[in-house]
Amino acid sequence: MFRIGLRGRTQLTVIAMSVATFILILYRMSSNDASSHAAQIGDAGHNDLMSKKLQEINEFSSMTQSAEQIARQKSFEERIMADVHGKANRDEKFGRRLMLPNYKNNANSKENHINGDGVVREDTRLIQPKGSPLFEGQRIVHLDLKGAPPRLSYYEELFPLLRDLGTTGILMEYEDMFPFTGPQLQDIPAFNAYSKSDIKQILTLAYNNGLQVIPLIQTFGHLEYVLKLSKFADMREVPKYPQVICPSHNSTFSMLTTMIDQVVELHPGIKYLHIGCDEVYYLGDCVRCAMAMVDHKWSKTQLFLSHVVRMAKYIRQKHSGVIPLTWDDEFRDLTETELHESNVAHWVEPVVWKYTPDVAILTSEMWDKYSSVFPAVWIASAFKGATGPDKYVTDISYHLENHRSWMDIVASYSDRIHFRGIVVTGWQRYDHFSVLCELLPAGIPSLAVNLAYIQGDNKDMVSVPMVVSQILKCDVPVPMSPGMGRTRCAFPGAAILDAAERLYSVTLNVERLLSDSTVKGWLTQYNIDHSFSSPSH
Question: Do residues 445 and 497 make contact, with C-beta atoms less than 8 angstroms apart?
Answer without folding.
Answer: yes
